[in-house]
Amino acid sequence: MLVIEGLTRRFGTKAAVDDVSLEIPAGSFVGVIGRSGAGKSTLLRLINRLNDPTAGRIRFGDRDVTALGGAALRAWRADCAMIFQQFNLVGRLDVLTNVLLGRLNKVSTGTSVLRLWSADDRAIALSALDSFDMGSFAHQRAESLSGGQQQRVAIARALVQEPKILLADEPIASLDPRNTKLVMDALQRINKEFGITVLCNLHSLDLARAYCDRLVGMAAGKVVFDGRGFDLTDDVARRLYGLEAGDVVDETVPTAPVAAREKAFA
Amino acid sequence: MRADTLPRLDPTVRDRLERGYLYATAARRRRMLVGFGLLVVSILLAGWIAEVQPAKFFANFGSFTKYIHDILPVLHLDAADTGIAEWYWGWKRWLRLLGETLLIAYVGTLVGALGAFLLSFLAAGNLVRSPGLRFAARRFLEFCRTVPEIVFALIFVVAFGLGPVPGVLAIAIHTMGALGKLFSEVVENIDMKPVEGLVSTGAGFVETVRFAVLPQVMTNYASYMLLRFEVNVRGAAIMGYVGAGGIGQDLLEAIRKFYYTDVSAILLMIIITVVAIDMLTETLRHRVLGAEGAR
Ligand SMILES: Nc1ncnc2c1ncn2[C@@H]1O[C@H](COP(=O)(O)OP(=O)(O)O)[C@@H](O)[C@H]1O
Ligand SMILES: [Mg+2]
User: Which PROSITE patterns is this protein grouped with (chain A) (predicted)?
Assistant: First the structure.
């Protein structure tokens, strides 16, 4: 179980994540929703410790994640794999190597730096790739693939980390509808077949309702909703997005100063 | 769509936005002007303090051209071969010294680039969180490149004696400083997404550099290294002035002892070599960068 207690992260004076407390049981598929700037990405990055919290605690089992450093921190990161909106693959390396990078925490630096991957690791990586229909792309440079393909490579990389948790930061925000379904199905399989807890930031309410067994709504860094998909009434959705629930889109042109918009939910 | 059908902002809002825009850009323009003015003033000031006197340059231009004229050999068309043989009487020795010069530049560049390679990652602000370590790496590189290589060479000649070793060391240290700075700037301009991707998997610093940074910087590193080799060939040519090996010693001797035609013979050899090296490394550099673009 992942337990988050009073987690806060400030950038300057602004709290991107503001006193968030959550309990996430093992094996659940949680969707984190909210508009752009609500603090969803920061929350996931805090859990992986790509950002350090200003206050609060994260616990996983008997590990105090917020207190980790050095090798223990790297081991934790391997345990909570992360996939990103922009895939974050190494574009100039081939697909198989990208997936093998997910095994780095499990091999010694000396052998990995020389690319002396074991036959076992290669087999694991190839079968992970193949299970997302990407086996035949193993030799291609990652940057030559389409977005949907790259995201599936990223999911394969996450899987070979043998993680306990998978954090997905808007994994489908730059994909077309067909690839959206492929990637969401892949996440679902990881959750159902491997029992890995999935925490997924999403923009689209429909997708969140369809795939997640629990939704966490964020606004201005705070959790403003926590429940099942059908509990999320149109009224709550409007409160979350400040828009018609039907057209939940990224606002590119703010109509009022940011501070004023954010106070609405404070 | 016709322009008059486009929406117009409410005048009060428009005025506010417009004022903000003008205010912001005016500040930028002012800064530019002040900066330019300061530049001009400091150029004039520097010239005045350093007593740069253009008039003196023009007054003495004649003695400079006379020197050029004096060092040129007198060649007659009907006996050009014997004339050239006489002019290049010491070609065997000069060629050997020129080869030594190239080797000094080559080894110095390699050793220096290796040091620069290792330090560049520590000096890069986007990779190293510890400000202390970054500060130390940067100041060290700064020291290595601010001290002129000829000064290092002088010190090493005193320490290690005459010969090419002090030349190599001097060039290596200066190269480490100069390339380390360039390399770390290459690192600071990389795409950080792959780096985050790797850090998120639990990879350590060395692995992150190896797999997320190196693939992005290798071609630029190679290109800068070749460029530095060109510079170092020129640098190595004067190492002999302080007894640190290469052709420089013979050139200096020829100048000091007024062996006029020797000066021009050696100079010509150096110029041809430098031009050849420049052309070679330029082709190589374009090949390296071209391979990058084609991928
Ligand atoms: N590295 C950062 N530096 C400064 N501000 C940041 C940084 N990362 C996020 N923020 C701010 O924190 C808030 C939450 O951002 P984020 O977590 O990316 O939101 P979301 O993912 O929900 O769109 C935003 O207002 C954003 O501007
Ligand atoms: Mg985000």
Answer: ABC_TRANSPORTER_1, ABC_TRANSPORTER_2
Chain A residue with CA closest to B198: the answer is A101
Q: Which of B97, B234, B245, B113 is nearest to B172 (CA)?
A: B113
Is A217's C-beta closer than 6 angstroms to any atom of ligand 1? Answer: no
Alpha helices in B50-90 (DSSP H): 54-59, 61-71, 80-87
Q: In this structure, which ligand is nearest to the CA of A52? A: 1
What crossing angle do the helices spanning B248-256 and B91-123 adopt, rounded to 10°?
120
Alpha-carbon gap: A157 to the closest alpha carbon of chain B (Å): 9
The response to whether residue A51 sits with its C-beta less than 6 Å from ligand 1 reads no
Would you say the CB of residue A85 lies under 6 angstroms from ligand 1?
no
Query: Which domains, and CATH codes, for chain A?
Result: 2-263 (3.40.50.300)
Two tokens, residue B134: 């970054």
Give, rounded to a whole angstrom, the gap between the first and last alpha carbons of chain A.
29
Q: What is the pLDDT of residues B117-164, one digit of tens each?
A: 999 999 999 998 889 999 999 999 999 999 998 999 999 999 998 889
Cα–Cα distance for residue pair A197/A28, rounded to 1 Å: 5
In angstroms, the Cα distances linking B27 to A10, A224, B16 are 30, 42, 17
Quick check: pTM over 0.90? no
Q: Which is nearest to B190 in space by CA: B214, B166, B170?
A: B214
Note whether B206 contacts A89, CB cutoff 8 Å: no
The side-by-side arrangement of strands in the sheet containing A222-227 is A80-83, A165-169, A197-202, A29-33, A214-219, A222-227
Cβ-nearest to A104 among B194, B196, B202? B202
